[in-house]
Structure to design on (368 residues):
């Protein structure tokens, strides 16, 4: 059977196609419309009873619709990680045609790294998680905008009133400005803060509803047994990482978070630098926030006990070992390399415990 490798440079309206047969140099096929019917006709034209098609395109804003269409047609399709595509130092010209040719050639040589493609249910959950994160960012910006207006006019809350508490909002409703324009701006900023808060609450309620029905619901509940990982953190880890069994070892999951140190070693010299910051930034942020709790002595708070009620005993024991290990690790590293680097080292080890939870819960299902 003949193997044919097809590189696609995908844009919103067009797809540039290049073909690399087994024993010929890659050639440009042309440009088609980014339309399911056009793609189906193209694959039917290039394939055949004695031709095995292998297709690749870069991950990007067009998502995985094309991947799902080609997979449903029985065609082997790879979505390549853009940051891991080899680049020749002397290649200074970039066009759609050249990109498609490069993808076809690298697919044939096996030098591309595929990304994980979630199913539609998991992608929908991830979209909801990211929508909630975007809403929190918008809420913070709205609060900053209102605070700067108050600071500009020299308005300060009474002593003992915490920002954004109930008493703080009561004080905001009592603030008065002399000029009409200032009153209009203040009312608009305050309404924006209130609307942003309602938006976050609405998205979090929907997130709890959707997380309860997902296939990863048991993992979401189990991760909340760890100190520093609440519901939002747990569902973010599951939504961004997917099935933890796709990582054969814990170090591979740590590398996916981008919390591992970079290295430039040659011969007898070894040099490790800052963390790579590759992989998933949202996942790395969540683990870094949870690692902050390792600064304090291990304990079981009432909220943590409540979260552990419906968690298997092996997971609870693992969470306690994680508290002991991470706290000792932080105290050992904080005075040597500084608190900030120590927190990142703790976050890296916390990723290993998270991987262990996924492996522990899903191992029986995998064996069955």
């Amino acid at each position: 059977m003949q193997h044919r490798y097809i590189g696609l440079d995908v844009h919103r309206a067009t797809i540039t196609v290049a073909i690399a047969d087994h024993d010929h140099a890659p050639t440009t096929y042309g440009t088609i419309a980014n339309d399911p019917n056009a793609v189906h006709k193209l694959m039917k034209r290039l394939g055949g009873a004695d031709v095995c098609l292998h297709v690749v395109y870069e991950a990007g804003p067009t998502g995985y619709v094309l991947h799902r269409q080609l997979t449903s047609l029985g065609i082997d399709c790879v979505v390549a990680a853009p940051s891991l595509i080899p680049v020749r130092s002397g290649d200074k010209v970039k066009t759609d045609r050249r990109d498609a040719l490069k993808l076809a050639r690298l697919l044939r040589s096996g030098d591309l790294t595929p990304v994980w493609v979630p199913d539609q249910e998991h992608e929908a959950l991830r979209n909801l998680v990211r929508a909630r994160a975007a809403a929190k960012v918008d809420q913070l910006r709205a609060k900053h905008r209102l605070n700067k207006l108050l600071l500009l006019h020299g308005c300060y809350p009474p002593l003992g009133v915490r920002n954004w508490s109930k008493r703080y909002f009561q004080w905001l409703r009592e603030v008065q400005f002399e000029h009409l324009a200032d009153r209009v701006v203040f009312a608009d900023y305050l309404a924006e803060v209130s609307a942003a808060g309602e938006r976050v609450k609405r998205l979090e309620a929907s997130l709890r509803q959707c997380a309860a029905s997902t296939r990863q619901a048991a993992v979401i509940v189990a991760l909340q047994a760890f100190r520093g990982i609440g519901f939002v953190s747990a569902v973010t880890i599951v939504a961004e990482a997917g099935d933890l069994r796709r990582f054969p070892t814990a170090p591979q999951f740590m590398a996916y978070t981008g919390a591992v140190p970079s290295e430039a070693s040659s011969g007898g010299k070894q040099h490790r630098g800052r963390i790579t910051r590759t992989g998933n930034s949202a996942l790395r942020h969540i683990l870094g926030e949870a690692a902050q709790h390792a600064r304090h002595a291990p304990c079981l708070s009432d909220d943590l006990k409540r979260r552990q009620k419906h968690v298997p005993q092996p997971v609870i024991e693992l969470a306690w070992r994680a508290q002991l290990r991470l706290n000792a690790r932080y105290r050992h590293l904080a005075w040597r390399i500084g608190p900030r680097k120590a927190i990142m080292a703790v976050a890296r080890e916390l990723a290993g415990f998270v991987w262990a939870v996924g492996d522990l819960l899903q191992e029986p299902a995998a064996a069955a």
Summary: The first strand starts at residue 2 and ends at 10. The chain is about 55% helix and 10% strand.
